[in-house]
Design a protein that fits this description.
heterotrimer, A alpha+beta (179), B mainly alpha (310), C alpha/beta (734), A: alpha+beta, two-stranded antiparallel ribbon, 21% helix, 26% strand, C: 734 residues, Barwin-like endoglucanases, six-stranded mixed beta sheet, 27 strands, globular
Chain lengths: 179, 310, 734
């Protein structure tokens, strides 16, 4: 079974937020909320600086605390690609999943249910790429099956230096940042 | 020098998590209080005190039914998708403390209700024949009463633990990430329950006993606090940063003054004097204990949300 | 923003709103956005068009789901977007659903700038405009009406006004933006850099950016190619007072002192010439006046440049050698917004010369030769003969090859060489795009007629006599985009969805206005479809195919000298002019010479402005999707300076310039990413127009603080990085 993940090239990314905008229109994310976002990390002292720009979102963790803590099973691991999803009709809005996510990837939709990145599973199941990946003008985002050694993401991870976010939180995130 | 900026600005998440306001601390406080009540009243039942008219056996189960309903209402008020609350009871998820909690609460209601049937207050007698018949049946078999007592104590411990485990299960919130949290909430719940009885009972023996018990609980709570804080302070950077929120950070004033000072040390001192007959019993001490218990939940819930990994 | 107009804007109270004779589109306080216009269809319909959030004009495909606009994506066959829009393009659908949009034609009912309107019918609006235009024509002549326009949408209105008889058309994109660069390159190579720029970034092995912040400046194809170059491991060299996004990708980041770029470029050329690293064959073959040029820059050593620029001689040498190592695939980017210090044409010429030394003009990885499709214009009747243009009397700025917007403004104020009494402003918010707002307002007060065509109630619309609400690009046809680019193509803009209110497309307005003016014979076509079909048929292309595909591509042609592109230079010498006789003749430096800029007084910072990837100028801040990405700008202050000033990130401050103009409040970004002698903000924020409810008073306007500008003597460009500000703490109430 596939295990979907992303490899995002921080060398190419310019932090333009096209991924964020595309997610908003594709998924009709309500005004004021974001399923994905840009993090910019600067270290050093002027002018000797290092800057990493990252497009961040739900990490669709292999060990997803949001799924573990959900009392109703609304948060679940999808059959296709092991994507972490929320069944809005099962969600009671208890916000446990929001508290459980070390990445702050979830929010409460104004209608009351927990919402987050779905890896655009509705598109992926039609053979399309997630909206954020498909619009990126810098081609810095790569999506695919981490379990398939021949997939583009696996190849990139095999050949490039990379890191994930807060691996120490123990959730086994599936989004990797190429450096 | 490190600068981290993120463009996300989700309500309740950014810049710092603040998804839970007063409802959850109130729910956790009441949960702890009811847990304490169940343990105390279960103990009294087990001890055969129900034969006397002690407050703990006579009124406490009724009060706790009301309190528990209040706590559940508070929890319900916090839900964002309220119409779907029934979804809790179409499934059971063993990895979810909240799922455990919702089912524990379902079991607690009949157990508390059974407790009330041991002695139906006079004004309610002969109102519902089924209750009267059940009460008569229970009273014919003292072993049932003992078991009701044990059941109350067991479920009380479970409930008290649950209020802490609910939070400590959140790996993403370092302040809650302590195995001491369930003990802290359980002891605090016991102390609050003892204070409540102390406050309301007219029975001299009962008051004296529970004031002494409360002193023990408060002392124990100080030790548990010590363990809780030391544990976090000797853990990773994120845990140290987290506990600093309550030790020296934005929640320090509330923590030291209202939780430790007027919530534990002051009532403990007053009650120590009272049980040694240096001063008269006063409702001030138990009121302070109850307030301190509530503030504890507020501090832990608020600071815990703010504590984070990155 | 001058103190005068600020008071005026702030004085506007609720009372004056209710005093307006009719509820107006600007002041209507509808709390909810209008119901989106719908098409009857169910399911998803995909309509190709091209974008208008900026001027790049990327090909796009809009999706309408169950009759409502859903999303817009790049058209895969479009050479500009290459199937991927930029964030502004992706968020472009927010322009359609923007609840602050202009809805109906408005006529002013009170003093200018008070934004009090009466809603009128289109016929009333045109009758009003025509009456005023007749009067101006009779009193002063038709040349006394001028037009400011930005973008392709102005084409039809220009046609109407040319038919009316005026020669005066200007765009701030020349004198306030890319003009100095285009003149500098034209004087060197005989041709402009153009738009889209003819830069072959994707093949560059070494890319040099001087203050050009690609990635924040989100011109789609350029950024795509920039990422490609970075991904390919190209050497990036960035000189910028700010550690830009591009700087973070650079092998060499040069934290240059603002205003000294020319010294750096001269020193680079000095190294390349002195060390004999230039493309000798190329220079010998195409160059003119190289020896005089070499002599002229002989003193501009890295050691000379060091105290000017703050860049160590060793770094200058190393980067120059790096550039030479990759030649001719070394692209020294010409930039775009180049109106900085008033010597901008000469600086741009120096950049052109550096490219010439590296042999990159006409070469792969440098500058390609753009090609275009041949699509004839519509055969209109000849326009009436018009007198000379008003903006550059007597060729005061001898090398301006386009009209100078600020020249028209000046003529409007002085009445010389002849009076200007009417302005048409199309899709350019002059209050934010021209420097020194007080002068703009002074000119406006001299007008008998100010017509503003816009989609949102911008600041300039606030000063208008008549406001004409235009359909947004997703709701209208426009002229064909016949682009000069890497390959020939023609693109169509066509309506995707209906306008929600009484907005109309510009072609319809232009035609109706012409008819009202008695110029109907200049519009032989019934509607724009007929116009487009006529042009395409004349070019041997199919309108139906274009409607279906959005783009028709032509056969590729050689775009590099080495592949057969003609190596011709339209300069007086017919060669690349290292030494310019025409400049010498006109009394200017024939080879660029560095002059030290004025420094900020102690305690002041030089004010610099730039772009954010999610906004275009001052026109997208009310687009709810884009404002959700960024709804106010920040002032970047060096972290050390911020500590000294006792301000921290997130604090509100105000900026006060040398002329005591105080900005709206703006948040601080205390950062290591900028030099201590300057501050930086993104242009386009700090709106004061009341109708822009969502963007009102969010962030500060750099334009308001640009009360001074240094005019480029070669072409009239207005250098705007010459203003100094202090940081004033914001007093918070309550």
């Amino acid at each position: 079974m596939a295990r979907f993940g992303m490899a995002i090239d921080t060398v190419r990314c310019v932090g333009c937020m096209d991924c964020v905008v595309a997610c908003k229109t594709e998924n009709s994310v309500p005004e004021g909320f974001n399923r994905d976002w840009i993090a910019t990390e600067v270290t050093g002292t002027f002018p000797t600086l290092h800057m990493e720009i990252r497009s961040e979102r739900c990490n669709h963790c292999d060990s997803p605390p949001c799924v573990h803590c959900c009392p109703t099973g609304a948060s679940h691991v999808h059959d296709v690609g092991g994507v972490v999803l929320v069944d809005y009709d099962k969600c009671i809005g208890c916000k446990a999943c929001v508290a459980s996510c070390p990445y702050g990837a979830r929010f409460i939709n104004p209608s009351g249910y927990a919402e987050k990145c779905t890896f655009c599973i509705h598109r992926v199941e039609q053979g399309l790429l997630p909206a954020c990946v498909s619009v990126c003008p810098t081609h810095c985002m790569h999506f695919g099956d981490l379990d398939d050694p021949n997939s583009e993401v696996s190849q990139l991870l095999a050949s490039r230096n990379h890191h994930s976010l807060l691996p120490e939180a123990g959730t086994k995130p599936r989004i990797f940042y190429l450096t | 020098m490190q600068e981290l900026t993120i463009t996300r600005h989700n309500e309740m998440i950014d810049p710092l998590l603040h998804i839970w306001s007063w409802q959850i601390p109130v729910y956790l406080f009441i949960g702890g209080l009811v847990a304490g009540i169940m343990i105390i009243s279960g103990y009294f039942v087990l001890q055969g005190q129900y034969k006397r008219n002690v407050f703990s056996c006579f009124y406490l189960p009724h009060i706790s039914l009301l309190l528990l309903t209040g706590g559940m209402t508070s929890l319900f008020l916090d839900l964002e998708h309220k119409l779907y609350v029934w979804r809790l009871y179409t499934t059971f998820h063993w990895t979810s403390p909240m799922s455990w909690g919702s089912w524990i609460l379902v079991i607690i209601y009949p157990v508390l209700w059974l407790n009330t049937l041991i002695r139906i207050p006079e004004r309610y007698q002969n109102k519902v024949p089924v209750f009267d018949r059940l009460s008569a049946l229970i009273n014919k078999h003292p072993v049932l009463i003992k078991n009701i007592g044990i059941l109350n104590m067991l479920l009380g411990v479970l409930l008290g633990m649950y209020t802490g485990v609910l939070l400590s299960a959140f790996g993403a919130r370092p302040l809650w990430n302590s195995a001491m949290l369930w003990m802290l909430f359980l002891v605090s719940g016991l102390s609050a329950a003892a204070a409540l009885v102390h406050l309301i009972t007219t029975d001299q023996y009962e008051r004296e006993l529970l004031a002494k018990a409360d002193n023990a609980f408060l002392t124990l709570e100080l030790f548990v606090f010590g363990g809780f804080i030391t544990g976090l302070l000797t853990s990773t950077r994120v845990h140290i940063d987290a506990v600093k929120l309550i030790l020296v950070g934005p929640y320090a004033a509330v923590f030291w003054v209202l939780v430790i000072g007027t919530g534990i040390l002051l009532p403990l001192s007053i009650q120590l004097l009272a049980v040694n007959h240096k001063v008269k019993h006063t409702p001030v001490a138990p009121l302070l204990v109850l307030a301190g218990g509530l503030m504890l939940r507020f501090v832990i819930v608020y600071a815990g949300q703010y504590s984070h990994w990155s | 923003m001058s103190a005068y107009s600020r008071r005026k804007f702030l004085k506007i109270s609720a009372a004056t709103v209710t005093a307006a004779t009719a509820a107006s589109a600007c002041t209507e306080a509808s709390a909810t956005p209008p119901a989106p216009a719908r098409r009857a269809t169910k399911g998803v319909e995909r309509v190709p068009t091209y974008c208008d959030v900026c001027f790049w004009k990327c090909g796009a495909i809009a999706s309408v789901r169950d009759g409502a606009l859903w999303k817009i994506e790049g058209n895969p066959i479009d050479p500009l977007s290459r199937g991927r829009l930029c964030p502004r393009g992706t968020g472009g659908i927010g322009a359609h659903s923007d609840p602050d949009r202009l809805k109906r034609p408005l006529i002013r009912r009170s003093d200018r700038g008070r934004e009090e309107w009466a809603e009128v019918s289109w016929d009333e609006a045109f009758a009003y405009i025509a009456k005023k235009m007749h009067t101006i024509k009779e009193t002063h002549g038709p040349e006394s009406v001028a037009m400011f326009a930005h973008g392709i949408g102005g084409n039809f209105l220009k046609h109407t006004l040319k038919a009316y008889g005026t020669p005066n058309f200007a765009a701030p994109s020349f004198a306030q933006c890319r003009g100095p660069r285009d003149v500098g390159f034209r004087m060197t190579f005989g041709e402009d850099v153009g738009s889209p720029e003819r830069t072959d970034i994707k093949n560059a092995q070494c890319l040099v950016l001087i203050g050009s912040h690609l990635g924040e400046n989100m011109h789609n194809t350029q950024v795509q190619e920039f990422a490609e170059a970075v991904g390919n491991g190209a050497t990036i060299i960035v000189a910028d007072p700010r550690f830009s996004v591009a700087a973070s990708k650079a092998k060499h980041y040069l934290p240059i002192k603002p205003g000294t770029d020319l010294a750096l470029v001269l020193a680079w050329m000095n190294v390349i010439v002195t060390e004999g690293l230039y493309d000798k064959d190329y220079v010998a073959k195409y160059g003119f006046g190289f020896d005089q040029f070499a002599a002229s820059i002989a003193a501009n050593t890295p050691e000379w440049a060091y105290p000017e620029t703050g860049i160590e001689p060793e770094v200058i040498r190393a980067t120059a050698r790096e550039m030479a190592r990759h030649k001719p695939a070394t692209l020294v980017h010409p930039g775009r917004h180049s109106a900085w210090y008033g010597d901008d044409t000469q600086r741009s010429r120096a950049v052109a010369l550096l490219n010439a030394l590296l042999g990159s003009w006409g070469r792969k990885g440098g500058f390609y030769t753009p090609v275009s499709m041949s699509v004839p214009g519509y055969p209109y009747p000849a326009y009436p003969t018009a007198p000379a243009k008003v903006d550059n009397p007597g060729g005061k700025y001898p090398f301006a090859h386009e009209a100078i917007s600020t020249g028209i403004r000046e003529a409007t104020i002085t009445g010389q060489p002849y009076p200007i009494k009417g302005w048409f402003v199309y899709a350019t918010n002059l209050i934010h795009s021209l420097p020194n707002e007080a002068e703009t307002i002074k000119a406006i007060q001299n007008l008998d007629l100010l017509v503003v065509v816009d989609v949102i109630p911008s600041e300039i619309a606030g000063w208008a006599d008549v406001v004409l609400p235009e359909s947004v690009y997703l709701e209208r046809y426009d002229d064909l985009n016949v682009e000069w680019f890497r390959e020939p193509f023609v693109a169509l803009r066509q309506p995707v969805i209906d306008s929600p209110d009484d907005q109309k497309p510009n072609w319809w307005m232009a035609k109706r206005l012409a008819e009202t003016l008695g110029l109907a014979h200049y519009y032989p076509w019934k509607n724009i479809e007929e116009y487009l079909d006529h042009r395409l048929t004349a070019a041997g292309l199919s309108f139906d195919e274009l409607k279906k595909e959005g783009i028709i591509r032509g056969a590729p042609q050689p775009i590099f000298f080495d592949d057969g592109a003609p190596s011709e230079f339209a300069t007086p010498s017919g060669k690349i002019e290292f030494f310019s006789l025409q400049l010498q003749k006109a009394g200017f430096d024939p080879v660029p010479v560095y002059h030290r800029p004025a420094e900020p007084p102690a305690g002041s910072f030089r004010l610099l402005a730039g772009r954010a990837p999610v906004h275009t100028f001052s026109r997208t801040q009310s687009n709810r999707i884009l404002s959700d990405m960024m709804d106010e700008n920040e002032v970047w202050i060096n972290a050390d300076m911020a500590r000294r000033l006792d301000v921290k990130s997130g604090d509100y401050v105000r900026l006060k310039n040398q002329d005591a103009v105080v900005s709206n409040r703006i948040r601080v970004k205390a950062t290591e990413r900028i030099r201590p002698d300057c501050v930086y903000m993104v242009h386009g924020f700090g709106h004061t127009a009341r109708g822009l409810r969502h963007a009102l008073q969010k962030g500060a306007s750099d334009a308001g603080l640009i009360t001074r500008y240094a005019t480029d003597p070669l072409m009239g460009g207005t250098g705007m990085n010459v203003n100094f500000v202090t940081i004033e703490p914001e007093v918070t109430h309550g």
